[in-house]
Amino acid sequence: MSDPIRPDQPPLVSVLMPAHNAQVWMSRAIRSVRDQRSPDWELLIVDDASDDATGALARSAAAQDARIRVLTAPRRLGAAEARNMALAQAQGRFIAFLDTDDTWHPDKLHLQIRFMCETGAALSYTGFWRVRGAHRHEVRVPAEITRKRLLRGNVIGCLTAIYDSHAFGKVPMPSLPLRHDYALWLDLLSRSCSARGLTRPLATHFRRKGSLSSNRLHALFATWRIYRRHAALGRASAAMCLSSHVIGRMLRG
User: Fold this and answer.
1) Alpha-carbon gap, residue 111 to 27, rounded angstroms
2) CA 248, CA 244: separation in Å to the nearest integer?
3) Which residues of the chain have pLDDT under 50?
4) Which phi-psi region, left, alpha or beta, contains residue 176 (left: φ > 0; alpha: ψ -120 to 50)?
5) CA 197/CA 99 separation, integer angstroms
6) Smallest Cα–Cα separation from 74: which of 111, 48, 36, 35?
7) C-alpha to C-alpha distance for 152 and 189, rounded to whole angstroms
8) At 132, is the secondary structure helix, strand, or coil?
9) Cα-flanking dihedrals φ and ψ of residue 202, to 5°?
10) By C-alpha distance, which of 188, 32, 164 is closest to 99?
């Protein structure tokens, strides 16, 4: 995966990055992509109606690296639709996700794409670190997951997921304010037997106060809506899945 990039060929990996008022931490995320051992990628940053220096920082990064492209949302879209805007422009076979407040290990793309090619996995994920202030916790993941098992709790961190568009086509995230990534994994697994995981941590998620995902009650309600409306589960099945989800989340930390 470290072969020289051919300018007449599309990139192997497209990285989708929504960005809204992210001037404080976005440079760290971009740098983690630029530091990848595997150079065959493109990074599509969507400036999602920011009113700070996010757009300027993104354009500056693009001026320094031709593999980075900046898209400007016509209005505030939210993370799901911003990712879908980037997806529409993506040229790579493999679709990866990184938020502006997260980072990747330098070997992530090299190891994960090789793993997918060797195993034939159409959807893959890895372990990752979760950081809250001074506390750093390793989030461990199973080596394989089915849709049935994933309904009992999401173990696929969005910052770690990669899917193969040759297997699935370009599949947009459902337009939901929260848990749209979880809904996408369920959609993909409805068309595949399982997803495969690299159990070593290859990314870092920085938990910020005030972020959408940090509000646990909102997140639980969003998960319930996915079970009932997106996955079309009955009340009893949805309640069992939600209970399993909460327990699993507590155990993973």
Assistant:
1) 23
2) 6
3) 1-4, 212
4) beta
5) 20
6) 48
7) 14
8) strand
9) -125, 15
10) 32
Q: Where are the beta strands (DSSP E) in 143-211?
A: 144-145, 162-164, 195-206
First-to-last C-alpha distance (Å) of the chain? 33
* CB proximity list for 24: less than 8 A, separation 6 or greater: none
Give the dihedral sign, CA 194/78/99/73: positive
Work out the angle at residue 202's Cα, subtended by the Cα atoms of residues 59 and 91, and round it to the nearest 5 degrees. Answer: 45
DSSP 8-state class, residue 152: T
Angstrom distance (rounded) from CA 40 to CA 6: 9
- Whole-angstrom distance, CA of residue 121 vs CA of residue 197: 9
Contact 121, 196 (CB under 8 A): yes
Tokens standing for 72? 């400007």
* The CA-based dihedral angle spanning residues 4, 26, 161, 131, taken in that order and rounded to the nearest 10 degrees: 120
Condensed to tens digits (0 to 9), the pLDDT of residues 143-156 reads 999 999 999 999 99
Each residue of 109-143: pLDDT tens digit? 999 999 999 999 999 999 999 998 889 999 999 99
Q: How does DSSP classify residue 230?
A: I
Measured at the alpha carbon of residue 172, what is the angle toward residues 240 and 165, in degrees to the nearest 5? 105
